[in-house]
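Please go through the protein record below and explain what the tokens say about the fold. Record follows.
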Amino acid sequence: MPILVDEKDLRLTQLSLGPYGTNTYIVTCAATGESAVVDAPGEAARVLEALAGTTPRLLLMTHAHMDHTGALAELKAALKVPMAAHPLEAPGLHPGPDQLLTGGETLPLGRLTLTVLHTPGHTPGSLCFLTGRHLLAGDTLFPDGPGHTRSPAAFGEIVGSITQNLFALPDETGVYPGHGGTTTIGREKTNYARFLARPRDPGLCGDVLWVPA
């Protein structure tokens, strides 16, 4: 159970869960012990174990794809806390959200604040959650590229979400994606600049890397 961040005010824990190795994050206010769970891919018992000693307050969903929602019903029933998501993702979430987030909201968590960013592209209602200089990015931004897109229009949309919303954050902001390891905003800005310097297929979409392997 890796603790990725252990600061005076914040503890950030990552669990890789379910058949697709999807990341669940637990954000905990170090001062009050209040916690929030971001995404619910599977293995609810492991999430509940990791929450021991904290006071859960929120269950936050970055989007409604099945690899992020396998333990949603079980966790929501066990935790008895509000679940929040974008309204465009609500039809794919069972049970449905108690709170709808469209981007721009701030969610208190003890002495912490989580800022909600709407970052469409991977899905229409994809959300990221920012606390301090730590970004829980869902499937919007990964090391070396954006999340999967199903059309050139969606690829343009996710690039706009990244360049307009995420790249406005400080370079040292840590990026914690829905799968795999971490990166920083500064690193991805550099890689994106290399992507822009190369010729691009106007029909580009799918799994795209800023810099081909």
